[in-house]
Backbone:
């Protein structure tokens, strides 16, 4: 009996050992960034950046580019060009060209969300120019462009004007008319990679772009507490409305004010269901970092006049941004979600929002409180 039991144990161990597939880190090409460049003939130029760990040697980075019809096809071709099996579990960034929207080829990105090799929190960005060229350029300053892109996006989505766009957000937004996407735009300038703007999407098409200041408004209205260094130019003739002109020394016709946002809070309210009217209010606490002209801060009423002028300037800029969104029909803020939550009938709102959003009324307002005057030039 003991011999039978021992034989069974040995057989079981042999079976388990034979079936076990090991994934050794040093035998994998670990993908950290992936770029899709859609072409007019409905194919993709797919580029991947990989890390390969070699025993006793420095970690190696390489980029591989293939032409394929699908993501799976690209993965197969990449495996044929690499010394080790492709491992996608560490992919951090997916880059897209503008053509993928123009040629209506976003389905392939939706497919990735159902691929177990790709996580929902992968960051997505659009590249001005060729995303493949951005990954394959021989940089002097970046040891691995994939991890550097991830760090760039991670830092700026956390403490700057850049909205976060993950694979989860992307696939969720492509399935609804009530919420459009706002995707960071990256470009290469010689040896440097910079975040330049935000692409505004409507019905899976790029319809316009937002500036960094507008990105700050967007993130605030979506509920993000966003530290931001705001630079503002004010015409001297416009300062009479706030009384700020009384505290300025004679000088240039334009005043530059730089302030650091220390706290921000946005609130959207539906004030008229029948006529679809909203208010969009932003409260901001700031530290004044710089004023380009001499300003008499110590005099009574000077701070209040400055706050009033900043309220006027930023309220105008916010209103211009809101009007732009309605004109472009890009509801990337989520007014449709607010409307649906108040009136119900999700299916009807979904069907009509494309036409109703441009006809809605949105009144923006910014209220600023100066906490400190900081460093004045």
Residues:
């Amino acid at each position: 009996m003991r011999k039978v039991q021992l034989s069974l144990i040995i057989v079981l161990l042999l079976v388990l050992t034979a079936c076990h597939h090991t994934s050794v880190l040093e035998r994998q090409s670990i993908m950290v960034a992936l770029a899709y460049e859609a072409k007019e003939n409905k194919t993709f130029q797919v580029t991947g950046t990989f890390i390969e760990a070699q025993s006793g040697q420095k970690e190696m980075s390489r980029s591989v580019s293939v032409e394929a019809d699908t993501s799976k096809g690209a993965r197969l071709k990449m495996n044929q060009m690499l010394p080790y099996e492709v491992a996608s579990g560490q992919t951090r960034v997916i880059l897209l060209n503008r053509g993928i929207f123009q040629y209506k080829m976003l389905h392939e990105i939706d497919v990735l969300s159902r691929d177990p090799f790709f996580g929902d929190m992968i960051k997505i960005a659009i590249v001005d120019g060729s995303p493949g060229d951005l990954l394959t350029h021989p940089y002097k300053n970046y040891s691995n462009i994939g991890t550097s892109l991830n760090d760039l996006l991670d830092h700026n989505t956390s403490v700057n004007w850049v909205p976060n766009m993950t694979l989860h957000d992307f696939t969720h937004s492509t399935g609804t008319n009530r919420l459009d996407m706002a995707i960071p735009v990256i470009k290469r300038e010689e040896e440097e990679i910079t975040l330049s703007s935000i692409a505004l999407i409507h019905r899976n098409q790029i319809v316009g772009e937002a500036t960094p200041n507008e990105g700050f408004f967007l993130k605030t209205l979506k509920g993000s507490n966003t530290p931001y260094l705001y630079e503002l130019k004010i015409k001297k003739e416009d300062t009479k409305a706030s009384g700020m002109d009384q505290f300025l020394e004679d000088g240039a016709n334009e005043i530059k004010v730089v302030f650091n946002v220390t706290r921000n809070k946005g609130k959207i309210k539906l004030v008229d269901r029948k006529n679809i009217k909203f208010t969009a209010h932003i409260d901001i606490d700031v530290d004044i970092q710089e004023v380009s002209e001499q300003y008499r801060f110590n005099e009574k009423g000077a701070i209040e006049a400055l706050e009033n002028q900043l309220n006027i300037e930023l309220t105008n800029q916010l209103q211009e941004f809101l009007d732009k969104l309605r004109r472009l029909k890009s509801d990337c803020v989520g007014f449709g979600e607010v409307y649906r939550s108040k009136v119900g009938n999700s299916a009807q709102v979904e069907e009509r929002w494309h036409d109703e959003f441009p006809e809605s009324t949105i009144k923006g307002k910014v209220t600023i409180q100066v906490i400190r005057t900081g460093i004045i030039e």
